[in-house]
Amino acid sequence: MAEQQLLMISRDDILRAGSGKQGDRLFRTLARLTRSGFQLLATAPQPDDWSREHGGPDDALLGPESIRKRLADAGGVLDGIYYVPRSLFTQRRNREAALNDIMKRYGIVPGHCHLFSSSRRFVEAASELGIDATALTSDKQLMQGLKGLLKQADP
Which domain holds residue 29? Predict the structure, then answer.
């Protein structure tokens, strides 16, 4: 793959799909994408309260049965986690700022970014910025989208 590609998936959508009967297949597919040159970034809403207690929001991403561990066991890499700030009055601006910040940090243009999320508004913000964004309505749809990216990566 000549150009760097960034794959952003909502943490909650990964967890939902990963806990279903197709969970192992999901992580094998994500691992293949990361080995094909895609960088994988999980997105999540910023927690209202950060704590060091076991069972906090980071356990899903970094704990012993986490997304990161399951992906590593399948031979892939989770490049990062991005917590999107939440605010009652500036939520739209926060989503746009987060997406622009992510692209700046990765040094990537919108046309090389792919977002999968069940948050319709996050998908709308991404689409307006030129990011290839898919609003998820089912786990099957996530797998179909990832397979499509694999076809692009391995023609």
Answer: 5-153
